From TrEMBL:
Protein name, entry field: DUF814 domain-containing protein
Keyword Transcription set for record: no
PANTHER family: NUCLEAR EXPORT MEDIATOR FACTOR NEMF (PTHR15239), RIBOSOME QUALITY CONTROL COMPLEX SUBUNIT NEMF (PTHR15239:SF6)
One CC-aspect GO term: RQC complex
Domain of life where this protein originates: Bacteria
InterPro entries: NFACT_RNA-bd, RQC_Subunit_NEMF
A UniProt-annotated Pfam family: NFACT_N
GO MF, one annotated term: tRNA binding
Length: 527
């Protein structure tokens, strides 16, 4: 209701009393949809800030304001030096108009759609629009003629049409007094009583209604603060910072919920895929079984055969056809199958470990969601401390990417850097990596150096390490392998020998992680 006619009706005379004789000394914008006007009477300053975004126009009166040194643009040069005479509002409209001694005007149209500010250096001068795309606002001059409510009443069976500036808070208040089922005469009586309360409010109320923080002239909803009706400027100064804080809190809370829900969903899906693949491997004839059958039936396989039918003693002695390569001996085929069986065992262990890791990550995310629900107190500082504690800071990929000449990924609060070529690998490992950063590389093949930036007091989580290892495998010669061993170690155990070629290093102490080559961040649009 802070942009509602009835509040502006209280605010306008208070501004007139406070600002008469003040002159404009600055007018600028340093954020999108923002217009800031600074005034002074020679000894005191007064700031008026209009946020003219269609998503929610707002007028605030900060007690002080510090202009930024950058990204600040001067506006309306003819407004400077203008001396305020009075401030008025338009009847049943969300418009506040400042009049100056020179007959110039500055009009704030605070509509929930198409808000704007309109300046005229003189009544006959052309309008200067803050939002120039709303060209129709150039026709706004002065307050329109006041409509007669009794005349509207005589031709209407809806009392609300006689008072179009009432707004949703007044309607909610009317409903608490039995408005909807009341006969038409009672409705008129209720509306007139409420209008009288709005025109002569007992107090201003900061209230919560339908999960929104509102400034009201009526005691409706969950009243949190009651402020004196004699000080609309003070009420606005109390309300706006609280509203902005809660909007920021709700936006960050919503972003955190989305992040955790997405992480839980992706982890659960990944675990499900790993379990499904694991089940398929464990419940189908494996490479070792096929190799055993070939070795057991060597005497039955003629040279150059393309297939052989054998008795499968693993499957209740059922007949089974095994395809062969005519250019390869059965012994060689069996040898290759035994090698694949060894890799299959490694894949089975890796799938089992991955499923457990991803299930743990999904459970962690769900537990954090439960914590988040219990944390929902409206305290923005506490929310940010909790977010930082759990490594859930907003991604800073774009900023870091501009600063660093590497591929950059952000995961759970950890920054992952990937070298682009041999020379870039040297730059990453020798100049940018700290001794406590975690260094990764696909084992025994050429590929990108990968670094997980160290965070003091926060060990690298297993899922983050796994995804970084997948990147190391993906950006290597093993990209198309089904599985890839990846070396990882603190960067302090990586050194470059004298005379070594670009990108070549020696690892003095290492651990190895087996992963499927992939870029797990592709779905996020990061390449």
């Amino acid at each position: 209701m802070h942009t509602n006619y009835y509040f502006l009706r209280q605010l306008a005379p208070a501004l007139t009393h406070h600002l008469a004789g003040y002159s404009v000394v600055t007018c600028f914008s340093q954020e999108k949809d923002e217009l800031v006007v600074g005034l002074t009477n020679g000894s005191q300053e007064f700031w008026l800030k209009a946020h003219l975004a269609a998503a929610g126009p707002m007028l605030s009166l900060p007690e002080s304001f510090h202009r930024a040194r950058q990204n600040s643009v001067d506006l309306l040069p003819e407004l400077l030096g203008q001396v305020v005479t009075r401030v008025e509002t338009w009847y049943h409209d969300r418009v506040l108009q400042v009049h100056f001694a020179s007959r110039a005007t500055l009009l704030f149209k605070l509509y929930s759609t198409r808000p704007n500010a309109v300046f005229r250096a003189a009544p006959e001068a052309s309008a200067e629009l803050f939002h120039q795309r709303y060209t129709a606002d150039a026709e706004l001059h002065s307050a329109p003629a006041v409509a007669d409510a009794t005349e509207v009443a005589s031709s209407s069976t809806n009392p609300l049409k006689a008072y179009p500036g009432l707004g949703d808070l007044a309607l909610a208040y009317l409903r608490t007094r039995g408005y909807d089922p009341a006969p038409i005469e009672t409705k008129w009586e209720l509306v007139r009583e409420v209008v009288q309360e709005l025109e002569q409010p007992a107090a201003f109320y900061i209230t919560r209604l339908d999960a929104r923080t509102r400034l009201s002239l009526l005691p409706v909803g969950e009243v949190e603060h009651t402020l004196p009706a004699t000080d609309p400027i003070g009420a606005l100064r109390r309300f706006v910072p609280l509203l902005l804080n809660r909007r920021a809190y709700e936006a960050e809370l919503r972003q955190l919920r989305q992040t955790l829900e997405k992480r839980a969903d992706e982890a659960a899906t990944s675990a499900q895929h790993a379990r499904r693949r694991l089940h398929a491997l464990e419940n189908t004839a494996g490479y070792r079984q096929t190799a055993d059958l070939l070795m057991a039936h060597l005497s039955q396989i003629p040279a150059g055969a393309t297939q052989v039918e054998v008795v499968d003693f693993y499957q209740d002695n059922q007949p089974r056809i095994i395809k062969l390569k005519p250019t390869e001996t059965p012994q060689r085929t069996a040898q290759n199958l035994y090698r694949k069986a060894k890799n299959q065992q490694l894949e089975t262990r890796e799938l089992s470990a991955r499923a457990e890791r991803r299930e743990t990550e999904a459970l962690w995310s769900l537990e954090r969601l439960e914590e988040l629900d219990s944390l929902s107190t409206g305290d923005l500082r506490a929310l940010r401390q909790w977010r930082k504690q759990h490594g859930l800071d907003p991604a800073t990929v774009a900023k870091v990417a501009q600063e660093l000449p590497f591929k950059v990924f952000e995961d759970s609060g950890f920054t992952i850097l990937v070298g682009r070529n041999a020379q870039n690998n040297d730059l990453l490992t020798q100049r940018y990596a700290h001794k406590d950063d975690l260094w990764l590389h696909a084992k025994d093949v050429t590929g990108s150096h990968v670094v997980i930036r160290h965070r003091a007091g926060y060990p690298v989580p297993g899922p983050v390490l796994e995804r970084a290892a997948q990147l190391a495998a993906w950006y290597s010669r093993r990209k198309n392998d089904s599985l890839c061993p990846v070396t990882y170690t603190p960067k302090k155990f990586v050194r470059k020998p004298k005379g070594a070629i670009a990108g070549q290093v020696v690892v003095e102490r290492e651990n190895v992680l087996l992963v499927v080559p992939a870029n797990p961040y592709e779905r996020s649009g990061v390449a």
